[in-house]
Amino acid sequence: MLKHFIIIFVFNIFIASTVIAANQDSRELRCEHFIVNYSSSIDESYARSVGDIAETYYRDITQEFNLIRDNLWLWDNRAKIYIAKDKSEYCDKFKCPSWSGACVDYENKIIYTYPNQDKREAIFSHELTHIIFREYVGKGKLPLWLDEAAATYIEDKHSGGYQRSLYILRNAITNNQYVKFSQLEQMNLSGADAVSQGSVNLFYIESFSIVFFLIKRYGRDNFYQFLYFLRNGYEFGEAMRKGFTSIKNIDDLEDQWKRFYLE
Ligand SMILES: [Zn+2]
After folding, report:
1. Are 154 and 61 in contact (CB under 8 A)?
2. Going from the N-terminus, what domains does the chain have, and what CATH number goes with each?
3. pLDDT digits (tens, 9 = 90+) for 35-67
4. How far is the CA of 127 from the centre of ligand 1 (A)?
């Protein structure tokens, strides 16, 4: 009976969100790990659906990669989601680019967005993975491709797209036009105009395909181990050898990965 009471009590604290008016123009919805701040012209039910999606992905990302952190996203440490009333307010108020569906302050765990986008699932699953993954592995320990690989892996799970595009990767491997792993490690997309859209797409698909391969071939537990060693200060190659004992080095990974997709 006592146990039952405690469960209900905890349930009430966490799940029963309260809506309070933060000011005239916006309202606030408090969820377990997120605070959703939304324009008062938006329906509460919409804000709640955003909070629900964020909570679902939060749980899934944490479980999928076993990202157990010391710093829980509770109370004052909750992430924040700001929803502007429309796209023009999103650009003016949050200074986000008009081509984007959301922009993210990764360090402070803030996602800015606007309502009714068709890519909401893709955006939230992808960006939340970046926030959680970077928090877990730590700054400076994460090559860009691996960061994008984790984000696209979760995005694919919730809104599809990447597994269906693997034929592009197979073609690139067959024609020896894929991004060599030695290059992949150094790639940053900041000089994006120097890089063609085709090679940016290939970069994402290839990054996805490596994590997809590692998990399919070696299982999630070995992937957890690898991330654990990376988080704990091992350099990339060493973390990989410790996580996946049958991968000797990055060249060996590249060979195994190629064979997997050409099988
Ligand atoms: Zn990304």
Report:
1. yes
2. 2-137 (3.40.30.160), 144-262 (no CATH)
3. 999 999 999 999 999 999 999 999 999 999 999
4. 6
pTM of the model: 0.86
pLDDT band of 262, cuts 50, 70, 90: very high
Distance 129 CA to ligand 1 centre (A): 8
Q: How far is CA 2 from CA 9, 15, 35, in A?
A: 10, 20, 30
The tens digit of pLDDT for each residue in 105-145 reads: 999 999 999 998 888 999 999 999 999 999 999 978 889 99
Alpha carbons 106 and 171: distance in angstroms, whole number: 34
Residue 204 Cα to ligand 1 midpoint, Å, equals 9
Q: How many angstroms does the Cα of residue 130 sit away from the middle of ligand 1?
A: 7
CA of 148 to the centre of ligand 1 (A): 5
CA of 5 to the centre of ligand 1 (A): 42
CA 123–ligand 1 middle distance (angstroms): 9
